[in-house]
Structures are given as structure tokens and as C-alpha cells.
Design a protein that fits this description.
The protein has 327 residues and is an alpha/beta fold. It contains twelve helices and nine strands. The strands form two sheets. It has a seven-stranded parallel beta sheet with strand order 3-4-5-6-7-8-9, sandwiched between helices. Strands 1-2 form a two-stranded antiparallel ribbon.
């Protein structure tokens, strides 16, 4: 973008202070690289083009100069074991954890290590769920990947970042060997907090997936695998399937679903498996008590628990609840 230097704002007006002859000199260097069409953009005047024409007079177009690759720089490429396992047709286990609400990361790391030893294939880390700030999911994912050599799937919401912040974060994730992300639109900011917290929403999950796909084509050698959400409890599941198909067209390779507690949601999951050409991880969340079941049914977006299941936890002790939940 051959602007006339960098803009300066004075009294709400934009000025370009660079001299026209400096502009012409810089364009000469671009010509030496093998560019064969040049011109001026923001801030340029007829004087800039006049001097540019004079500096070009008699010049021959040169072959495009090859860009030398830096030596000694290696990409942090690691095997994407999770993706490989899914694509080979094996069942994989992903476990979601919320990041800490403070700076104490020890418990999170200890529990993640236990999950790895118990046979989980990947840990997914929520990104400021219900729009409340927690330790950054992507930074924490890098820590898990590097310290525990465990695959990670950080959630990336559209609520809190514009395109610059999103690209910067994806570049960092890639360089740290984190090559899976879950693209989600993100919970809205609670009404009571909107005077203090502004949502961004420059993307939705489909546009974010499409943007990551463009980076996979242009920048990343080993592409970042994009996962998205599938709501099998949707009242209009045919519309949800259409959205899912659009997500696939935008680059999503797989879906994570909410848990199936009802027969209807289970049938929706089977229908998705038949109609979507993508990997699907069906959600499983064990309920720990009647109170927990009531809370999840009423307070957690996308989760629906039948009344007979809620009532089945009535009068059970904590130990009985645990056995009943697993059953």
C-alpha cells in the first residue's frame, strides 16, 4: 500500500508529511524487486506521480527477486495425535475444563495430568464462559501442550476479539504447537455488566472458521484443525443441521455437541452422524445431584434435561448420586 508516508491527525484532519521525492525513491526500490505495476495511494498528489514517473524513466523491468529464507528457524511442528486418532476411525475422549479465575494454575495442571493418565486424548479449555473473565484459554493451552505434552483444544470466542487480536492469537498458538481450536460465537455479556464490558462480535463462529481457513491456506504449513459446536437439543434441529453444513463449508472438520439426555436429542445426534460429513464428539456430562440437574436445565444454554431424569436423583446420597450418574 504505497501511501505518502504515515498519516498525522491535526484538528481532526489527516495530513501526510513525507516528501514527494522520498516517495519516489522508495518506489524505485520496489521496482528493483521485480514489481511491474506501481502507483500511489493515500496522501499522494500529482507531484508524487510526476516524480515517480521521472525516477522510472529508462528503467527496465527486472525479474522478480527471490526472497531468501532465514536459516536456523524451525517451526514448532508436532503430531496432531487427536486429529489423527479421529480420522483413523477410533473413538477419542475430549474433556472440557474451565481455566482458573485467578493466577493459581497448579490445580488445573494437576487435574489435566490426571486426565491424561486416565486415558483422555485431549483437554478442551473454555474461553471466558458466560462472559466472565478467566485465565486466557489459549495461553493456558500453550502451557499444557509444552509442559505436559498433552493435546489441547482451546475455545476461541468471537465476543472478545477483533480480527487483529484473533490473528495475533492464532499465530502464537500455531508457533507453540497448538493446532486445534474450537470456534464459537460466545455467550453474550450479562445485561448488568454491559456498561463496563463491550462485546466485539466482529465474527460469528462460521466467519471465524472461514477466517482460520484462509490463514491455513496462506500462512500455516500444518493447518489448524477447526472444530465448532452442534446443539442437538435445538427445538428446530433441521435449521441447526443447515448451520452445521455451512460451518463445514467454512472449514470446520468436526463438531462437539451438548450432552444427549433425552431420546429426542439422541435421535438428533444419530441424524447428524448420517447427514454431516464431519467428525462428531457426542457430549457426556454426568449429573451429580438433583440440584445440579435443575441448575443445568435452567441456567446452561443448550442443555435440556428431562423431568424424569431430574426426579430420579431425589433423596439419593452423594455416593448413590455418583453411581446413578454414571449409570
Amino acid at each position: 500500500m504505497p501511501n505518502a508516508g504515515y498519516p498525522i491527525v491535526r484538528d481532526n484532519r489527516i495530513y501526510y508529511g513525507s516528501l514527494a521525492n522520498y516517495f519516489a525513491t522508495q518506489i524505485e526500490e520496489i521496482l528493483d524487486m521485480g514489481v511491474n505495476i506501481v502507483g500511489g495511494c493515500c496522501g499522494t498528489t500529482p507531484k508524487h506521480i510526476e516524480l515517480l514517473k521521472k525516477s522510472m524513466r529508462g528503467k527496465l523491468i527486472k525479474p522478480r527477486r527471490a526472497i531468501k529464507q532465514e536459516k536456523g528457524i524451525t517451526q514448532n511442528i508436532r503430531l496432531n495425535r487427536f486429529k489423527n486418532k479421529l480420522e483413523s476411525g477410533q473413538k477419542a475422549i475430549a474433556v472440557e475444563l474451565d481455566s482458573p479465575i485467578d493466577t493459581n494454575v497448579n490445580k488445573f495442571m494437576e487435574n489435566t495430568k490426571k486426565l491424561k493418565l486416565a486415558g483422555a486424548d485431549i483437554v478442551t479449555i473454555a474461553d471466558n464462559p458466560i462472559a466472565r473473565a478467566r485465565m486466557d484459554s489459549c495461553l493456558l493451552a500453550c502451557k499444557v501442550r509444552n509442559e505436559l505434552d498433552f493435546d489441547v483444544l482451546p475455545h476461541m470466542t468471537c465476543r472478545d476479539r477483533n480480527v487483529n487480536a484473533t490473528k495475533a492469537l492464532l499465530l502464537g498458538l500455531y508457533s507453540e504447537g497448538v493446532h486445534n481450536v474450537l470456534a464459537v460465537t460466545g455467550d453474550p455479556v450479562p445485561t448488568a455488566e454491559r456498561s463496563e464490558v463491550n462485546a466485539v462480535y466482529q465474527f460469528n463462529s462460521r466467519k471465524l472458521a472461514s477466517y482460520i481457513t484462509s490463514l491455513n491456506k496462506d500462512i500455516f504449513n500444518d493447518s489448524i484443525k477447526i472444530f465448532t459446536a452442534l446443539n442437538i437439543n435445538s427445538k428446530n434441529f433441521s435449521a441447526e443441521l443447515k448451520r452445521a453444513q455451512l460451518k463445514i463449508e467454512c472449514g470446520s472438520v468436526g463438531f462437539l455437541t451438548q450432552p444427549a439426555y433425552s431420546q429426542e436429542s439422541f435421535e438428533n445426534l444419530k441424524m447428524a452422524r448420517c447427514k454431516l460429513d464431519a467428525l462428531i464428539l457426542g457430549g457426556v456430562i454426568p449429573l451429580i445431584s438433583k440440584r445440579n440437574a435443575v441448575f443445568m436445565h435452567n441456567e446452561v444454554n443448550g442443555i435440556s434435561i428431562p423431568e424424569d431424569i431430574i426426579d430420579s436423583f431425589e433423596n439419593l446420597t452423594p455416593d448413590e448420586c455418583e453411581k446413578h450418574a454414571i449409570k
